[in-house]
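RETRY 2/3 - previous attempt timed out on the joint model. Re-submitting the same 858-residue input unchanged.
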Amino acid sequence: MKIYLAILFTIFSLFAVEANAEEKYATVDTSHVFLKANEAYVNSDFKAAVSYYEDIISRGVINGTIFYNLGNSYLKRGKTGKAILNYRKAELLIPRNEDLQANLKYAYGLTIDNIECKELVSFLGDFCFWYSNLNVYELSYLFLVLNFLFWSLVAIRLFYKGEILKTILYLNVFLLLVIGPSVGLKVYRYNFIKRGVVTSKEILVRSGSTINGTVLFKLHDGAEFEWVEENEGWVKVRLCDNKKGWVQKKLVGCIIF
Amino acid sequence: MIRNIDPVNYKYKIFSMLVLLIVLMQPCSLFAEDVSVTASVDKNDLTLDDYILLRLSVKGTRDKPDFSEIPDFNVQSRGSSSQVSIVNGQMSSTIEYNYLLYPNNAGSFIIGPFYLKDKGRGVKSNKIRISVTKVSSSDSPSKDVFVVAEVDNERPYVYEQIVYVFKFFRAVKITDASLTGRPAFEGFIKEELGKETQYQKIINGRQYVVTEIKYALFPTKTGVLEISPSTLKCSLVVQKRRSRNRFNNSFFDDSFFGYSETVPKVLRTDPVKVMVQALPVTGKPAGFKGLVGSFELTSSLSAIKVEKGESVTLTINVSGTGNLKNNQNVAIGSLQNFKVYDDKPVFESKIINGKAGGSLVIKKALVPLVEGKLQIPLISVTYFNPVSRRYEKAVTGPYVMDVQPVKDTEKVELVEGVRTIVDKQDVKILGKDILPIHTGLNSLTNAKTKVLPVLISILFFVPIIIFLTAFMFKVKVGNKEEGAALARRKNAQKVFKKNISLALKMLKDDGHTFCQLAQKALKDFMGDVFMVSGSALTAKEMHEMLISAGILADTADAVNQIMIFCDSGQFGSKGHTLKEKEEILDLLKKSVSLINKRLKK
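RETRY 2/3 succeeded.
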C-alpha cells in the first residue's frame, strides 16, 4: 500500500508541475518560422535551419518533431553532440518514432568515446515494451486509467460479486502491478535523474569545479553522462563506469526541456 | 594386576596359532600346482549326422587354451564349468571348457593338440583320433528327424529350370532348428522360389511334419553337376522320466511328472547329382541367345496415326517361366525412319505353376522422322522349349503407322529447361545518411499541454470518492439492518410476556384457545430470537435451532414437549386439565427464560 501511495505521490508531483506550467500554443508566426526552417533544411542551409528551429523552441513549443528536426540540422552541420542532445529530448516525447531511433543510432555511431551503460533500465527498455515505447505522460495516463478502473470495480464489487467482475478485477490488478512500477521508475528518472551530453569537440573533465582542477579524463562530442549537480558554471558528471569529475557547463547540454 | 600364566596352556596357544597360520597359507599352494591341459571326447566314432562333445580340462590356471578352428568340423561352444578340490591339504582347481564338434566330411581325423600359455611356456594337450562315417540313407524313415534334398529333373538341358527341394521331416518335438550349411549350387544360377512351406506327411504309418524350402536352379554348363549337401542343426526334445518311481504306479510315468532335455542334432542331406544336357543343335535358330523355357510375347502401340515428330510408345511384354530374368533378348527389326528412345526394361518376378518366371516389359519411344506410311516390323523372341524339346519363336506385330505432316506451321522454339540461377550478393552500402526531417504542421502542437488537471482529477479522485461513498452507504445499510435485528432480539422477552399474559387469561376458559395462544407466544419468541418468521416454525425445526445455538438438550426437549402439548390441545379430541395447562405454562416460562439467558451469554 505504501508503495502504491508513493507512486501516486510521484505522479502527482509530476502532474502538479505540468499543471502549473504556462501553456503555449503555436501561432501563425511560429508556423511561418517552421516552414522557413524546413525550407532552409531542404536547401541544405543547415545553419539557418538550426536557427529557425531554436527560435521555435524558444517560443515555448515543446514537440518531439521539432527536437528531431533540430537534431537532424545539427547532425548535418557536423555537430554530433548537439544532435544527440536534441534527439534525446525528442525521445522523451516521441519514443516510438522509427526515424528518430535510426538517426540517433547513426549519431551514436559518430561518437568517439566508448561508454557502455549496463543498467537495469536498459534491460527494462528491451524487455518491457511499454516502458520504452510509451513516454512518461502516456505511461502515467495509462496508469491513471487503470487506477480509475480499479476503484470503480472495487466499488461495484461491494454490491455485486459476480465471477466476471472478479476476473476483470484480477486482470486490472495484474496490469496495475505491471504498469505501476514502470510508471514509478520512469517518473522518478524523468524528474530526479538528469542526463547530459557533451556538445563540444573535446572537453576536459577536472577534479574540481575550477579551471585549476586536475584533468582526470577527456570526453568527446556526443558522450553521454549523468548530470549530478551544478556549481557556478560547472557541472559534476558521472559516467556509467562511475568515473566522476567536473566540466564547464557551457560545453555540455542537459536532456531536459 | 599380574595374572598367573599356565606354561602348558601357553604352549598350546602358540601351537594353535602356528597351525592356523599354516592353514591360512595353504591357498598359496594352489598357485604352485602344475598347469596342464587335457582334451577328451565322449566318443571317437560317429556318423556325419552326429556330433562329439569335446572337453578341455585346464588345471592350475584360469587361462583359456588357444582354440583355433578345427578343420573338417563345425565348432559350437557349450560353456565352461570350474571345480575346486582339496585332497590331502592340497588345493587344486580345474576349469572345463566344453565344445560340440559337428563333422563336415566322412573320414578319419586327428584333433588337437590344444595349446595354453603359462608364464611364458607353452602347455599342450593330447591329441584325439576321430572316425566319421557316412549315414546310411536306408535308416532315414525310421528316424525321428531326417532331411532330404532332391531336384524335380535330374537330366535338364542347359539353362533349363529345375527345382531343388530341401525337405526336413520330423516326428518329434524339436527346437532351435537352423539351416547352417546351404549348398553352393556351383554351376547353377539360383533364384528363391517363394517362402518355406510346412505340411504333414505319413511315412510307414508314422506322421511327420515336413518343412520344404525350394530354389529354382538354372544350370549354366553341361555335364555332371553336384549340388553339395545341405546341413541343418536342431535340438531334439527328449522326455525323461524320474529315475525312481517309488509308488510303482503307471500314473507317475505320465509326462507331467517327467522332465525334458534337448539333444543337439545335425542333419545332412546327400549330395544331389544333376546330369546337364546340351541344347540340341538341330533347328537352332541363328539369333538364339540361350533363353530356355516357355514364353508368350505381346506388344502394343500407343497411337497408329501421328504427326511427324510426335512420339509414340511401343510396349513389348514377354512373360512365362524360364531364365527370362537373366536373358532379356527381344529381337526387333530395323526401325529406320524412327528416332528410338529406349526405356529401361522392367522385370517383375512371378511364380507360375510352381516355377520361377515373370514378365518383362520393354518400352520404346518412337519419333517418326518422315511422313507417310511407316512400318514397325515383326518383334520376336526365340527360345528353347524343354517340354517340346525344340526351338520356338514367339512373334508380335507388325504395325503400320500413318505419319501426317505437322499441321501447325508455327515455329517451335526449343528452350532448355535449366533453372536460371543468379548469384546472390549482399547489398552494398554505398553511402550513409540520416533520415529526413518531419515537415507536418502538427509538429508545432505543444506536447505538454495535453496534460489536463481536470482529467487527472477525474481519473484519480472520482473513483476513490465513488468507492468511499459506496463503502459508507453499505456500512450504513448494514448497520440499519443489524440494528433492527438487535432490537427484535432485545424485545423478544417483552413480546413473549405480553403474549403469554393473553394465554394466562384463557387458562380456565377454553383449552383450545389457551394452547393456541401459548404456542403463538413460543413461536413468536423463537422467531424474534433467531431472526426468522416464527409462525411457520415446527417443533422439529425449533429443536434443531436450539441445539445448534448451544441450548441444553433438556430445554430443547421441553420446548418440543410444549409444542406437542399445544398441538394436541388445539387439534386433539381430548382436552387438557387445568393442572396440566398450569404445568405447561410454567414449563414454557422457564424454558423461554433459560433460552434468553443462554443466548445473551
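Residues 14-26 of chain A have pLDDT under 50 and may be disordered. Closing ticket.
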